[in-house]
User: Which sequence fits this backbone?
């Protein structure tokens, strides 16, 4: 029931009533014997009203109604009163230039006509303002709802990203432990085992029981070294992380050639930034396939001690004609902003997405050195 | 033109449509007393008035397919195919109008042959009835969009036909009606067709009265199409 008495309904009712009144006026003026022109004009006004009802965006066609009314007013009778109808419609649509139609009154001044035209214009103005105000409220509501859903979407993305960062951190830590065992404990044990084996060769005249115990200890040491090697192997990451992950994504991009270049030392980039860069790269490549006819994609990763910059550029610019960002890029921009960075899009001869993220100095670095090796 | 072809074939399955659209106009033109001039029985303009009423009825019957598609849900299945609503409506309405155009052409030619109509009168008859056909098809289409069942639509349209026949200047000249009732018939396209044709019959030339009638019928066509096009048929 909410929309039944909306300003639009009032407008349609008033417009229809206006046509009915004009028809009655035409009948009272002698009908077809009085003026065929009157009925013809009435029909034109009806057709134009239906036309604007069918195609609501073509409000400018009200000018045709005004011209028809003024042109046929010369035939005399009550025809000038028909001008009230397009004037009412024009004011409702916010076409304020239509008040110039009132200049007609200079040629045919009639107090009753002035009153009718004035009332029609005022009624149209009132209904039009009411409609626009109502529309603005609806727009505001729609924008709020849109923002709410966008925030929900960002929240979902961040939850997924958090889980991914946690997973990547665990993998990085396992890689660091494996490397430590391999580089430190593993090497020491193997060195000790080799030394003991060498010592065994020069131990010829010793007590046979002591030698037996020595050999047993060597065997256990050998078994221990093997178990350490197995543990290191099991701890090592099987997935790609960091710069290797980006490189792998580019290498496996199926749509076109994707060149990946790395500049600078990437070992100091923390894990949460890698996760962000990975998401950015995936979005950039997806856009190159979905919204552009790209034949080549270039991905540049610049790492400095203070910032990291990822630039994804494709040569298909079909999607670039639309200046508004899609939800994917909007969400990424929010995520970049959340960690102090920025994401910008440039559409020119090529379509370029640039993500710049600052590297915070307090971020732990040991994990990253391990995975970037 | 697949929809056009099938709509045309479909309309020929109904015997009543077949008789009204394909046989009656030719049958009418062959009945000599109807075209002798002046009033015939109740009909003010003899064969011309009967042909106008027949055109309206045929347009209604031919366009019943649109209502049938709407009521049995076929339009939803049709639109599931890669066919736009505009194409569906255009081809359906064309399939209603084209057979009547052909009939009007035949009537004009037979009138020239049988009753020595002048070329001007024959052309005026063809033009007037062609535009009336368009207006009638558009009117029937707009009418069908108002209803959800064939029975309601048929009952309502029979009332419209009755009013058209009485106050539209078909059965009686409108001058016999008292007061304002004399002019209410202008809201029917048939009134303007009869008015235009009468002007040609009286003067022998296509004067302003005739062209005003044609223009008004064209405006009626546009108005009905706009109204019908706005209403949802799905």
Assistant:
């Amino acid at each position: 029931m909410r929309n039944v008495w909306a300003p639009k309904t009032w407008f349609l009712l008033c417009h229809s009533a206006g046509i009915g009144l004009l028809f009655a006026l035409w009948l009272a003026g002698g009908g077809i014997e009085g003026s065929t022109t009157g009925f013809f004009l009435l029909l034109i006004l009806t057709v134009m009203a239906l036309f604007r009802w069918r195609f609501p965006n073509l409000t400018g066609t009200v000018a045709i109604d005004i011209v028809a009314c003024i042109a046929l007013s010369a035939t005399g009778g009550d025809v000038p009163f028909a001008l009230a109808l397009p004037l009412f419609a024009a004011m409702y649509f916010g076409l304020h230039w239509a008040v110039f139609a009132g200049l007609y009154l200079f040629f045919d001044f009639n107090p009753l006509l002035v009153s009718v035209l004035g009332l029609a214009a005022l009624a149209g103005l009132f209904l039009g303002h009411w409609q626009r105000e109502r529309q603005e409220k609806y727009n505001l509501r729609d924008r709020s709802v849109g923002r709410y859903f966008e925030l929900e979407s960002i929240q979902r993305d961040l939850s997924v990203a958090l889980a991914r960062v946690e997973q990547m951190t665990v993998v990085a830590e396992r890689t660091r432990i494996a490397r430590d065992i391999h580089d430190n404990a593993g090497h020491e044990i193997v060195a000790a085992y080799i030394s003991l084996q060498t010592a065994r060769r020069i131990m010829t005249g010793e007590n046979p029981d002591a030698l037996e115990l020595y050999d047993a200890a060597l065997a256990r040491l050998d078994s221990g070294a093997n178990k350490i090697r197995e543990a290191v192997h099991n701890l090592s990451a099987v997935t790609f992380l960091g710069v290797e992950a980006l490189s792998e994504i580019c290498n496996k991009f199926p749509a076109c050639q994707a060149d990946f270049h790395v500049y600078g030392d990437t070992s100091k980039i923390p894990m949460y930034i890698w996760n962000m860069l990975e998401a950015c790269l995936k979005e950039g490549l997806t856009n190159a396939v979905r919204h552009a006819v790209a034949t080549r994609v270039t991905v540049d990763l610049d790492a400095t001690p203070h910032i990291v910059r990822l630039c994804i550029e494709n040569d298909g610019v079909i999607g670039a004609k639309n200046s508004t960002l899609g939800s994917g890029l909007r969400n990424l921009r929010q995520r970049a902003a959340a960690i102090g960075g920025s994401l910008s899009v440039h559409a020119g001869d090529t379509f370029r997405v640039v993500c710049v993220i600052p590297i915070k100095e307090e971020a732990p670095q040991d994990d990253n050195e391990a995975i970037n090796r | 033109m697949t929809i056009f072809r099938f709509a045309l074939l479909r309309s020929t399955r109904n015997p009543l449509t077949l008789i009204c659209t394909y046989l009656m106009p030719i049958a009418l033109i062959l009945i000599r007393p109807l075209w002798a001039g002046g009033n015939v029985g109740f009909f003010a303009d003899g064969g011309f008035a009967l042909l106008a009423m027949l055109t309206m009825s045929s347009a209604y019957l031919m366009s019943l397919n649109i209502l049938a598609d709407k009521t049995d849900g076929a339009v939803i299945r049709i639109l599931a195919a890669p066919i736009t609503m505009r194409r569906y409506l255009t081809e359906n309405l064309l399939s209603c109008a084209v057979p009547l155009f052909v009939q009007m052409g035949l009537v004009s030619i037979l009138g020239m042959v049988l009753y020595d109509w002048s070329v001007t009168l024959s052309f005026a008859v063809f033009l007037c009835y062609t535009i009336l056909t368009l207006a009638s098809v558009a009117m029937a289409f707009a009418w069908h969009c108002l209803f959800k069942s064939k029975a309601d639509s048929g009952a309502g349209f029979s009332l419209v036909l009755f009013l058209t026949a009485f106050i539209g200047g078909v059965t009686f000249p409108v001058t016999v009606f008292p007061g304002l009732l004399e002019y209410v018939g202008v809201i029917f396209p048939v009134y303007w067709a009869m008015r235009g044709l009468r002007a040609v019959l009286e003067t022998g030339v296509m004067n302003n009265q005739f062209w005003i009638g044609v223009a008004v019928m064209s405006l009626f066509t546009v108005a009905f199409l706009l109204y019908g096009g706005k209403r949802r048929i799905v």
Notes: Residues 112 and 119 of chain B are 7 Å apart (CA to CA).
